[in-house]
Amino acid sequence: MRIISWNTNGIRATLRDDKFFPLFDTYKPDILALQETKADEAQIPESARNLPGYTAYFASSTYKKGYSGVAVYTTEVPESVEYGLGVPRFDEQGRTLILHYKDFTFVNCYFPNGGGAPEKLQYKLEFYDTFLSRVTQIAKERPVLVTGDVNVAHEEIDLARPKENQKHVGFLPVERAWMDEFLSQGFTDVFRHFYPTKEGAYTYWDQFTRARDRNVGWRIDYFIASSKFLSRVTGTEILTDWYGSDHCPILLEVK
Predict the structure, then answer these.
(1) Beta pairing partners, 223
(2) Mean pLDDT of the chain
(3) Under a CB-based contact definition with an 8 Å cutoff, are residues 187 and 229 in contact?
(4) What percent of the chain has pLDDT over 90?
(5) What is the pTM of this model?
(6) Pairing state of beta strands 105-110 and 204-205?
(7) Cα four-point dihedral sign 245, 250, 179, 11
(8) What are phi and psi of 39, to 5 degrees?
(9) Whether residue 158 lies in the annotated active site
(10) What is the CATH number of the domain that holds 94?
(11) pLDDT-derived band at 162, boundaries 50, 70, 90
């Protein structure tokens, strides 16, 4: 099984750039998880909503139009789907899809950025805690695979300029401590499992400064596997050369 996760920074823009359909043709994923789709399902062209061989699920923001949003395209129909975490003030932003398959649960999430006003960081931290509570609850019963834009670089190796970003949202001690807590609950950052010392491996670059040209980036997009799921993972890859967003896709191979 092949799984791809990608923050598209607007699915309609990705479609205009002709980077959406080629992803399916090139990699033929069994599951494609998208974050920051920035569109209601009705705003997505029919050709992109109903792909032959796939069932698609969308969680869109009712909080604000053209904001947030996640989607999952899957060749196997899950047994059930949860649209959110069960908390209205988080779910109104369309950030989470939980797909329960026969033998594992797949969680696609676009975590809040937390930048700007202090209350936005507080919202992010409260979202983090609610999310962790939910996925650890599921993981007690069955294997879990989490993916998405977590909006935090965990360790210094995960961003190009750690010293300059010590006080920057996305690399704050409190955010990194939450990642520590997440992983201590029996979850594994799959990329670091396979590449514990690999440097220069990033998934996001600032567009305004053309940071991608210089590879001044952040690794903030993850596959995170519960202990019961990790043994099924055979490999992972950052698709650095795939454009169409300020993030690049990440790929997971599963037996």
Answers:
(1) 147
(2) 97
(3) no
(4) 98
(5) 0.97
(6) unpaired
(7) positive
(8) -160, 145
(9) no
(10) 3.60.10.10
(11) very high
**Set 17, 40, 103, 149: catalytic member:** 149
Q: Which domain holds residue 157?
A: 2-254
Residues 6+ apart with CB under 8 A from 181: 132
Cα–Cα distance for residue pair 119/169, rounded to 1 Å: 13
Tokens of 178: 């939450």
d(CA 168, CA 47): 40
Structure tokens at 128: 């983090």
End-to-end CA distance of the chain: 6
Number of domains composing the chain: 1
Provide the token pair at 250.
């990440």
Q: Where are the strands (E) in 119-220, listed by range?
A: 144-149, 187-189, 204-205, 217-218
Angle at 247 between CA 243 and CA 251, to 5 degrees: 85
Alpha-carbon distance 49 to 42, whole Å? 9
pLDDT in tens, 183-210: 999 999 999 999 999 999 999 999 999 9
Residue with tokens 């209350």: 119
Cβ distance 93 to 86 under 8 Å? no
Please state, as a whole number, how many other Cβ atoms lie within 10 Å of the Cβ of residue 168.
14
